[in-house]
Each structure stands twice: as structure tokens, then as C-alpha cells.
Amino acid sequence: MSLWPGSMIRRFDDLSDQEILALAISSEEDDSRIYRAYADHLRQSYPASAEVFVGMAEEEMEHRNRLIETHRARFGESIPLIRRDHVKEFYDRRPTWLVKNLDLDTIRREAIAMEAQARRFYVLAAQRTKDAGTRRLLGELADAEGNHISLAHRLSQTHLTASARDEETETRRREFLLQYIQPGLVGLMDGSVSTLAPLFAAAFATQDTWATFLIGVAASVGAGISMGFAEALSDDGKLTGRGSPTTRGIVSGVMTMLGGLGHAVPYLIGDFWLATYLAFIVVGIELAIISWIRARYMDTPLFKAAFQVVVGGVLVFLSGILIGSG
Question: Is the same domain home to 115 and 179?
Fold first, then answer.
């Protein structure tokens, strides 16, 4: 929260040389903290990438020290308190407490954006100052920020060996499986299979397509909400490495609902038998998709995956028809 009232937020063009230096100092300190937060977040799963961000944090502190020396030489020891949120339309940074929700690729993109923003700030600041020494320093820092991509590349060559890259790739694959594929697959299976019985029982008991559709929607939405909460509350992901419980809950809930809605939608058609035949086809497609996902991501042979899924689906499907016909 800004220390200044909103009406007192300064325009960048109105800042003095001392205020520009103070703003640059605080910005470098903030960026260094952010890079260290990235390193801390990544250290357990991606130790090599964490070391890259440690190196970038150290580079930011070197920039900060050079800025302080220039400020000391020109204006003395007292540095004004001015931060990003004190300057109108100045670039902002994501709060460090949100780091725990970011994956490796997002963090790398954030770092690239941070360096581009910092470079633009130094270019504009250098154009405004009339002091030759300050202009030279700001220009050098603009070049340094522009070269941070090459710095990251150099650090990557040092820390990201071939084995480290392979290890991080496997870690990312495992995290993707645990956070998205696994809860999504469980939801899709539950939604596709568990709603078969009530949907087709209602269909053959009433032969009313609209009533069948409403029952299918109710079963799908109810199952989605139930599965979403069950997945989100199953564990917080800290010990299991399964990631954000909120993300897993949303993925599982949405896929459960979609799995049930797939074979409910055909009953929007007024003709009962046409709707039922289309629903049969949709069920077959759903079971094929589930089998493919299991084979692709869960290392289950395709034939075995298809056999397991189809047997379970057919049993539930037939039970619904038998109950509805009775």
C-alpha cells in the first residue's frame, strides 16, 4: 500500500535525479528479493535453475550497490523513500507470496519481462538526467539489464548440465501428471462412468428426453462439485508434491462434469431413440479418450487400458438400462 495519498503519486517526468536514483535502488532491491524467492521456490524440485536465479539476484545487488555509490557521491547518505507504487504508471511486480503458485516456465517468462521493464526504465531515466556520470551509470545498467538474458544463458551453462536438464524435465513431467493429468483423468472417468447408470435408467424408465437431460445435468454437476471438493481436500500437496489443491480440485471437478454432460447433451433432441443412439456413440468416444489418456500418460498398454475401462463402463451402462427397463 502506498505511503502517499493517491493524489500525491508522482509522475515519472517530475522526478528529480535524486529520486530517480532512489527509485532505481529500491527497484533493484525488490528484484533481487524476487529472484531469491524464485530460487527458494525452485530449489527442491529444480536445484540447477534455482542457482541461476541466485546468480541473477546477486547481479541485481551489484547494480544496487553501484547506484548507492553514485547517490552517496552526489547527494549524501540519506536516500529518499520512493518505491514503484509511488510513481504513476510505473511497472509493478507480482507479490513474492504468489511465487508458490507459479511453475518453472511461468517464472522464466516473468524474469524475462522483469528485465525488459527494468531496461526500459534505465533507458528513459538516462535520457532525463543532466549529470554525465549518472547518465553513464544508468546507460550501463540499461545495457546490463538487456544482457541479463545472456547472463541467464551463461549461468545455465554453468549450472544446468545435461543430467540436470534431464532431471528437471522429468520433474516437470511428474508435476504435470500429478497436478493436471491424474485428477483430470479421475474426474473424467468418474463423470463418464458413474453417471451412466442414473442417466440411462431415467431414459428407459421415462423415455422423456427433456427429463433425461435434466437428470443427466443434475448428476453431472453434482458429481463435479463432489469430486472437486474431494480432490481439493484430499491433501495440500506439500508432502505428496501434487501441487495446488485448488488447481487439482478445479481440474477434477470440471472434468467430472464434462464427462457426465457428454452423454446427457444428446437428450436435448426430442426423438428418444435418436438421442439414445447418439448418447451410445458419445459414451464410446468418452471411453476411448479415457483409454488413450491412460495409455499415453499412465504407461498402461492401450489394449489393457481399453479393456479395463470398457468393461467397467459397460457394466454400469447395462445396470442403468436394466434398472430403467424394470
Answer: no
